Amino acid sequence: MGSFPTGGRGSRPIGGLVSRHDVIVIGAGVVGCSIAWHLAELGACNVLVLDRLQIGAGTTAQSSGILRTHYSVPENVALARRSFSAFEHFADYVHDEEAASGLVKCGYLIAAPEGPRLAPLRASLDQQQSMGIPLQRLDARQAAERLPICRFDDAALIGFEPEAGFADAYLVTTGFARAARRRGVRFMEGVAVQGLLAQGGAGGIERRITGVETSQGRFEAPLVISAQNIWSRELEDWTGITVPLVPERHRVFALQGPEPYTNAMPVYKDLGSPGMLYCRSYGGRQMLVSEGIGGEVLAAPDIEPGDIPMDAVIEVGTQVAERFPSYETAGLASSWTGVYDVTPDWNPVLGRVQALPGLMLAFGFSGHGFKLSPAVGRLLAQEALMLPTDLSLAPYAPERFSDGRLLTGLYGSGAVS
Ligand SMILES: Cc1cc2nc3c(=O)[nH]c(=O)nc-3n(C[C@H](O)[C@H](O)[C@H](O)COP(=O)(O)OP(=O)(O)OC[C@H]3O[C@@H](n4cnc5c(N)ncnc54)[C@H](O)[C@@H]3O)c2cc1C
Questions:
Q1: Residue stretches of the chain with pLDDT short of 70
Q2: Cβ-based neighbour number of residue 46 at 10 Å
Q3: Going by fewer Cβ within 10 Å, which terminus of the chain is more open, N or C?
Q4: Cα 179-181-186 angle, rounded to 5 deg
Q5: Nearest CA to ligand 1 atom 37
Q6: DSSP-derived 3-state class of residue 153
Q7: What was the pLDDT predicted at 413?
Q8: What whole-number distance in Å separates Cα of residue 294 and Cα of residue 236?
Q9: Distance 29 CA to ligand 1 centre (A)
Q10: Angle of the 373-384 helix axis to the 74-88 helix axis, nearest 10
Q11: Ligand 1 mean position to 364 CA, how many Å?
């Protein structure tokens, strides 16, 4: 069970500062900052956000920033759709004329050849259309007009989503944080949460969370929201709850090809490649590319840069050259790694922990949390304030794994979900 204080210790100052808030958010990544902004926007007073590092310095800093509503899981489509309009009108959304999301609205192209990924693509496109998402089916010639550096001769189905593209995760995170601060939210950086405070748990009294124990003392609140991403497994030590999460390291490459991948060219998802590659423009000239399948499983959360062996460069480079013929001679401009918080069904865990009142969770975004962050922040803030939620959080419930109600998409493992 680890260090899980019980029995009414939460209100006494032990070894330092005690401070009381209405809601404490652990983690100032894009998800924590979005939650904080939405709490303030919906009228919460006295919100505290704590981060061991700095605002946006966790895995958010590693994001490829791609925004699309293409999912086979309809709940994700709805979240992504709501979120896209926030990215598109970000300054209005956070009531700050200086705020920007850095959106490049270049659209999203997705293609599959004959084979196992064709039926999921067809079903997902049909579903998106039935949900009112603007969508076009393109033939190979039309697709090549949008992305002339790519070959589509083997494509059996191509979808194009115009209301999509990519944005800047740092701008969005700091935009949410600044707007939240203006509404009175307190941010404390360099403060590590080391445990949760609780009361009850004995003599038939329900055990409930009452705050956090940190490197700078105790902070009390009737509600704690963990937005800790890959570090969420700390909750297992603090509370004994199960956090089904694996940190997975992924590699991202920036390639300089003879033909530019411009900002006018859409994001491209290649369901025909072994690694289900995703590609987008990088800096208006280079190609950002990464595999959309499982990565390197880490024993512990770690965002330090990982090794990128030459074999891995060749493996991805070969897949790129297969699809983008002129990139056969591309050079590697840069490369980096980032870590996903992967759940068993590659979908996030959102909402209250039923067995532990006073604790809410937001983790497990499995490589696709940036595009969902505005809607997720709003839903969790609504839930926290016991307001009706815009969409149901039930499909994302923490208990779905133990209840056998997984939210597995048609594509199986992978961030396309
Ligand atoms: C390589 C890569 C590419 C990606 N590409 C995309 C993409 O194209 N599109 C997309 O939608 N998503 C993408 N994602 C996913 C997306 O970026 C993440 O889902 C999202 O940024 C996660 O935000 P977060 O706030 O949950 O986590 P984080 O940004 O990791 O924030 C968690 C914060 O919690 C803090 N914290 C943790 N434990 C404690 C503690 N005990 N005390 C205090 N603070 C604590 C950490 O310091 C950290 O700042 C990608 C991710 C990676 C790694």
A1: 1-18
A2: 15
A3: N
A4: 150
A5: 228
A6: coil
A7: 82
A8: 24
A9: 6
A10: 100
A11: 9
User: For residue 13, how far is its CA from the centre of ligand 1 (angstroms)?
Assistant: 32
Give 172 Cα–ligand 1 centroid separation in angstroms. 13
Ligand 1 atom closest to the CA of 51, numbered from 1: 44
Maximum Cα–Cα distance across the chain: 72
| pLDDT at residue number 18 | 65
Instruction: For ligand 1, atom 52, name the residue with the nearest CA.
Output: 63
270 beta partners? 111
Residue with tokens 């609504």: 382
Q: Which residues line ligand 1 (CB under 6 A)?
A: 26-32, 50-53, 57-60, 62-66, 169, 192-193, 227-229, 231, 234, 250, 252, 338-340, 365, 367-371
CA distance 104 to 120: 27
**Calpha distance 74→143 (Å, rounded):** 25
Report d(CA 164, CA 81) in Å as an integer: 9
Tell me how far the alpha carbon of residue 58 lies from the centroid of ligand 1, in angstroms.
5
The pLDDT tens digits for 231-253 are: 999 999 999 999 999 999 999 99
β-partners of residue 188 are 50
Structure tokens that stand for 37 in this block: 């902004």
